[in-house]
Amino acid sequence: MNTISRVAMVTATLTIGLGSLAACGSNDDGDSGSDEGKTIALLLPETKTTRYESFDKPLFEAKVKELCDDCKVDYLNADQDASKQQQQAQSAITNGASVLVLDPVDGKAATTIVKSAQGSDVPVVAYDRFIEGADYYISFDNERVGQMQGEALVEATGDKGDILMLNGSPTDPNAAQFKKGAHSVLDASGLNIVAEYDNPDWSPDNAQKFTSSQFNKVDPGDLAGVYAANDGQAGGVFAAFKSAGAGDVPPITGQDAELAAIQRIIAGQQFMTVYKPIKAEAEQAAELAVDLVNGEDISGTEDFQGVPSFILDPISVKQDNVGDTVVKDEFYTVDQICTAEYADACTKAGLS
């Protein structure tokens, strides 16, 4: 019997360039067809965050293919549209999906999807973002992510000065956990949050606009740092400082270990990111989905807000441990990070 054990924080090797593996019935509009077989619907929320198309999707598909020859993955992306995701989910259910692996655009709205699926005896795995009432939940310790970001900013600023705070989307349940964790550290520190922003769709452009607008109230050079909840926003913040002609950009936090963020960290343009080994998360979700399709018993879960869950550990990445984290795990190669623009910085950081 294939049971699932709790994932320990031992990061596995990730091969970049898996590409888009063939997924029968895979599309973006929910017209998946009704072929017979064991269908797993993978519903992801958006494409602005690079992880979903580049990592989550191909890793999940590859693991399902490895574990189950007669399973197929019906992949759908909602493009940050909760209504579209509702339609996609309903279409997947109607067309015979055996299980939904759902990363919701809007966690609260997704409870409707859960009820509809369960009404059709289709279990729902809440992937990366929590959904109340889901059958299972797989994610990282998201409150800890926020704490790590807050702790890094306190470290980088010497625990004094004014900062900006850019959070994630209010409809993203993870964003609330990141925010809670960060505030638990920042509110007890000597840092002063002069302005705070909840970014409606995690947009880097919105982050840049918000940051630039604050420069009408505070001189960029007077800011001790910026809390950015993810790397996309960190990139927007950095662009705002450069557009304002700021000489030295203050410490900026991030999350997701995007390649551009790792390069900014190597170059001293971003202080840190939070690396969440997506391979472990995606493969755990695939293994769970296959077990559910095959009617296997599930073991090794823990309780999270009443839902059987698999909670993984995040890792803080700074300039001094890039080689021991994302490079060691082959999340990125040195060649990918150390392009011509970053060659000198990589040499100084001991990466090349």
Automatic annotation (TrEMBL):
Localisation: Cell envelope
Domain Periplasmic binding protein: residue ranges: 40-296
Residues annotated as signal peptide: 1-22
Primary localization class, coarse: other
Listed SUPFAM superfamilies: Periplasmic binding protein-like I (SSF53822)
One GO MF term attached to the UniProt entry: carbohydrate binding
Sorted UniProt keywords: Signal
CC terms in the record's Gene Ontology section: outer membrane-bounded periplasmic space
Protein name (database record): D-xylose transport system substrate-binding protein
